[in-house]
Amino acid sequence: MNTATVSPAPRDWLGHPRGLFILFLTEMWERFSYYGMRALLILYMTDHLILNAEKGQDILGYRTLKAGVQAFANLTGFSGEMTVQIFSSQLYGFYTGFVYLTPFFGGILADRVFGQRKTVYIGGVLMAIGHFLMASEHLFFVALLFLILGNGCFKPNISTQVGSLYAPGDARRDSAYTLFYMGVNLGAFLAPFICGTLGQKVGWHYGFGAAGVGMIIGLFIYHFGRHLLPDDDFHKVHDRHQEHTPFTSTEWKKIWALVFLCALNVVFWAVYEQQGNTLQLWADDHTDWNFFGWEMPSSWYQSFNPFFIFLFAPLLDRFWARQNAKGREPSSTTKMGIGCILLGLAFVVMIFSAKGMTDGAKQSILWLALTTWILTIGELYLSPIGLSLVTKVAPMRIVSMMMGVWLMSSFFGNYLSGYLGGYYELMSKEAFFTLMMAMGIGAGLIFIAARKPLQEMMKTEGAKI
To answer: Based on the structure, what is the number of domains in the chain?
Structure first.
């Protein structure tokens, strides 16, 4: 008789597999590192790095990159002098854009070569190196390259593993992505207070160094909790010898529906990412941060959005559950459309704020707080819903790659955000914020108009689309 014992499966915690909370904490620290660096990036470039480079400081690749950015901007219709703000905005857009382009290739690498786990390790190590390289101004662009490549390996595969914890049709999956998204934003909330304060009050490189430490902590958590994580989808696919099987017509419909949603997602992120770009500049230049005589760092603005996310994400989750119980919960595509419309409406607040601005006067912090609150509710209607939708709809053998496609739409959105940010100096502030409003609402209306054919294309047995 076989007396070998079988270890019991890990028990659920708070109604979810324990592996979800390992991924939650790993992503929290990785996002701490990313948003800690992002909170400082536009200010570091406009107030220090690019100013010094223009005065002759040696930064590897600076002149070549500036010429390339100017040429690309000219090709896309931009005209005028490449000022420090405009060039920094373009760089911000390129960096945050490429951070979301490389996940497409990181997804392919995981699906076909290493599997999700190994690719996450590779990504984490590359990002940690990038953060620590930020200590050298000379190697600034090399550091950005490491961060871009590392994020490409890390991002799609950590997100895919969340979906892999659940069986097809498991009703907890949307809730799991909402919880996971709270981990993302807990890291994003803490980062400006630590990295932003160190960077603005002590020294830029202390802030960047703190971001690197956060990435290392995330890797340790992932490593020591790896026994709670699912097997790689890479291994599942190869066990079934499916890698060379042609896609069926049904699978192709799902793929093209996701690609269409990704195209609309571009517009969302182009408007949304003004938070780290032009809205951060507005926070620095036109917002009163005086708190009983102490001047708070303007980079703390970056904590508004994640604070609202983990405050309102559980409430929205309950609201959707009640709607579902009554048969009134909107479809995923309708939710995403609502998210875009709310994003556009958030900039109505900034239009009124700009109208009330007088020369030299600082605006109340409440204008930015209200804008960010509306924008955040819009984000909760779109971003975690989109992540969950990809894992429900994409063919299993390319799920990491399709997650990369979803994230790649953020590449175009983030680049477009930087390109549009170049007009922040050239247009009136009211006109600029009106443009953002129109783009958000327009994308939302297209989402809603296309919902029925998209739902038909993405129909999946046992999963609510």
So the answer is: 1
Judge whether 5 lies within some domain.
no
* CATH number of the structural domain spanning residue 321: 1.20.1250.20
3-state helix, strand, coil in the chain (%, to 5): 75, 0, 20
Contacts of 129 (CB under 8 A, 6+ apart): 146, 150
Answer yes or no: are the C-beta atoms of 224 and 421 closer than 8 Å. Answer: no
The Cα 54–Cα 35 span in angstroms is 27
Indicate the pTM of the whole model: 0.72
Length reported for the chain: 465
One-character DSSP codes across 13-39: BTTB-THHHHHHHHHHHHHHHHHHHHH
Structural domain containing residue 299: 19-457
Q: Are 187 and 31 in contact (CB under 8 A)?
A: yes
Write the pLDDT tens digit of every residue in 338-359.
999 999 999 999 999 988 777 7
What is the CA angle 283-287-289, rounded to 5?
100
In a domain, 59, yes or no: yes
Q: Which two tokens stand for residue 389?
A: 């939708």
Residue among 278, 233, 287, 322 at smallest CA distance from 426: 278
